Amino acid sequence: MKNSFYKKHLVDITHLNIEDIRILFKRASEIKKIVELKGGDNRLQGKIMATLFYEPSSRTFSSFVTAMQRLGGGIIPLFSMFNSSAVKGETLEDTARVFSSYADLLVVRHPELGSVRQMARYSSVPVVNAGDGIGDHPTQGLTDLYTIQQKFGDLNKLHVLFIGDLGHYRPVNSLSKLLSLYPQIRISFVSPKEVPIQDGLKKYLVSKKVKFIEANSFENILANVDVLYVTRVKKEYMTESLYHKIKGSYVLTNIFANSMKNNSIIMHCLPRIDEISHDVDSNSRAVYFSQQVRNGMYVRMAILDMILRKN
Amino acid sequence: MKNSFYKKHLVDITHLNIEDIRILFKRASEIKKIVELKGGDNRLQGKIMATLFYEPSSRTFSSFVTAMQRLGGGIIPLFSMFNSSAVKGETLEDTARVFSSYADLLVVRHPELGSVRQMARYSSVPVVNAGDGIGDHPTQGLTDLYTIQQKFGDLNKLHVLFIGDLGHYRPVNSLSKLLSLYPQIRISFVSPKEVPIQDGLKKYLVSKKVKFIEANSFENILANVDVLYVTRVKKEYMTESLYHKIKGSYVLTNIFANSMKNNSIIMHCLPRIDEISHDVDSNSRAVYFSQQVRNGMYVRMAILDMILRKN
Amino acid sequence: MKNSFYKKHLVDITHLNIEDIRILFKRASEIKKIVELKGGDNRLQGKIMATLFYEPSSRTFSSFVTAMQRLGGGIIPLFSMFNSSAVKGETLEDTARVFSSYADLLVVRHPELGSVRQMARYSSVPVVNAGDGIGDHPTQGLTDLYTIQQKFGDLNKLHVLFIGDLGHYRPVNSLSKLLSLYPQIRISFVSPKEVPIQDGLKKYLVSKKVKFIEANSFENILANVDVLYVTRVKKEYMTESLYHKIKGSYVLTNIFANSMKNNSIIMHCLPRIDEISHDVDSNSRAVYFSQQVRNGMYVRMAILDMILRKN
């Protein structure tokens, strides 16, 4: 069984194929059982993961930190890199070289698109992209796909609807690209007209012959979808005036949620502000708290394991 | 031997009885021996503790972090939560749900009264209150009681004197409530008239029939007490003008300290500013550095252990 | 084999002799083999290291944090102490007393000269100086000496050239003092006239009868040196106007680098701003990324090990 993650960077997810993903998800499910039984094991003893976060993110940080330690590894927990050598004027390239001398793996979050790829080029150890600006968030995309797969088994024939600020929301990019691997998938993108999906994603999906549509309202589509993926407006990535124009464009209430198929799921990669009403939390379709967060830990454990160990 | 801490929150301490405390302190003393012998053990391997600190506190943070690791557990070391999702507008409820998916236990400090209880309601794992505004600080209260018990053995018949800013100092609340379990205890509260003990505490002590007095000077009481607990003025919880009015109201010098019984002890939960002179540090009655801090680690180890393991 | 580091502070390095250093470097080389083979081991299980950083330094912090965990120890990862009790007005002495109750070893960085020695006086556990203002940085000095020794074997008869802001650069102090142990060593100090080496260092070297010169240009010396140590201008330790006057005084380009002996090495303790051109990075003489950083981890592992374990 080929482990195509071993010693490789995970900056983007376009190099992964269905078999790579199948193997990863198998590993995640095995690890899930171990965690449920005894919290974890020691397979990554002697390995150190450095988290280089140039943008605040308590949840992605924590997900990686818990994942690494549940497998017996150690951590270099750098949470606000702007309080560090960055302020002394060091380049990202030099930072990558230094930290890859200390750690066996770097997990990098950065507000600028392309920054993580740049660091990967100079790192002597694998780099995992934990979000690079409006670019990608591969471990979130894989978490989301795992959550969908756990629910539906077969990933073909599904209809996935994304709503919200699709222009700035990197998990949309990562998950959409992953979904494009499944030929019969259908995707609907619903956003305010100011923040549609990025051109790059659109071209990518066209090149992969994915059936997708773009729209500005979701009410008519809702009854047909298997997966509803709600996103937050990324306030920190836009002007104040744009934020005030588009915030609150879509709010998923329980009335809407109940109009969905019984067998459908509602996802959100959190934090949630007001785009999903709190009464939806207890809707049986809602998986964002009950499964998606926890799956993020299992999938990240699987990713760390497969990057750091051959077998 | 019933472990009433197992899988329970520790937000307040009013649900604990004398037997619960006896069992906890027995565990703390066992753990103390293990730490002295070999630093710790691996009983909490596979368990992860998240520290969610919304208020700076290097010492409580560090006490929990060292406690968890000395028992073989891992940590999610979040120290300044205001640099995190909180700034994106997430509610405490959602934060509780997310972090309880990653960790086996949450340790929360927050400047607002009631906030920790609120998080506990939504957490799927036990929550330990590491200080909630002017509310409670149960692990400190238990540490303080353990320190007193180690000195005197029998907790009855003691006379405990608190001095300082009693209105804002949460360990006063927690320790007083614990002391109320011992029927013959006597408590004297001495504070500037602007910052007496809180009404809620007063009512609680009355309902428990505790013998206590309130006063504004401590000189006459000092010779009679077994335990003197000195507190810091909580500058961060009051106006500048109130601070300047009450700061320096009481300063424990060695002359005062030496007027105390030989067999008495002087406590402070630190940091100390100027309310205890430095020459008191070497007074044989002073236990704040020599015992109280270290006991904090042992008691927190015992609490983590009993919450996370049944036996 | 006497371990003179055991249970001792490492605030300065002037108490170390050649035999102490030989034993330390032997340990570092043994540990290097273990790390290359399996990442580390568990010899420091049950030990906790607290990093008390009053000045940002992601790389020294990370080097210690990875070192401790690769030996099985735990960490109290305090990175920005100015967000902590310090703001409540606690003295360094009290902080030392508190943290030495939690941890088995304190690693302290502080912007003020003498502050770390002050803390060591009140700590009940060993304190390692991770940089105290314009004072010392002993673990960096030892790392640098180890890097030189690994290259040349015999440390006598070498010619070492330091260039840059020598007045504020503490590794210059630490390494120069260590070099003074080797009677035939020659040192050249080249700096802008505003930032020569400190008087204290000069007196120390004179007292040790070290052959050294001071100059303002390095071009003529370059062809004769075995070790070129380039330093960063410590912007944060000087006025804006002085910074603008001296920055860019020396820039090591590949043309200069290639004029050095084939068997020489170029060092820098990083972060590097613009004092070494990027094309020098691939020069065979450059060891700052390829060896110096990684050696920092091995040497710190050896130091932690020798301070915390007798054998």
TrEMBL record, chains A, B, C:
Domain of life (superkingdom): Bacteria
Q: Where is the signal peptide?
A: none
Every Aspartate/ornithine carbamoyltransferase carbamoyl-P binding domain range: 8-150
Task: Return one GO MF term.
Answer: amino acid binding
Annotated keywords: Pyrimidine biosynthesis, Transferase
Record bears the keyword Transferase? yes
The catalytic activity, as recorded, is: carbamoyl phosphate + L-aspartate = N-carbamoyl-L-aspartate + phosphate + H(+)
Pathway per its UniProt entry is: Pyrimidine metabolism; UMP biosynthesis via de novo pathway; (S)-dihydroorotate from bicarbonate: step 2/3
Matching entries from InterPro entries are given as: Asp/Orn_carbamoyltranf_P-bd (IPR006132), Asp/Orn_carbamoylTrfase (IPR006130), Asp/Orn_carbamoylTrfase_sf (IPR036901), Asp_carbamoyltransf (IPR002082), Asp_carbamoyltransf_Asp/Orn-bd (IPR006131)
Domain Aspartate/ornithine carbamoyltransferase Asp/Orn-binding spans what residues? 157-306
Q: Which GO terms describe its biological process?
A: 'de novo' pyrimidine nucleobase biosynthetic process; 'de novo' UMP biosynthetic process; amino acid metabolic process
Keyword Electron transport carried by entry: no
Q: What is its EC number?
A: 2.1.3.2
- State the family it belongs to: Belongs to the aspartate/ornithine carbamoyltransferase superfamily. ATCase family.
Q: What does this protein do?
A: Catalyzes the condensation of carbamoyl phosphate and aspartate to form carbamoyl aspartate and inorganic phosphate, the committed step in the de novo pyrimidine nucleotide biosynthesis pathway.
What NCBIfam families would the database entry show?
A: asp_carb_tr (TIGR00670), PRK00856.1 (NF002032)
UniProt name for this protein = Aspartate carbamoyltransferase
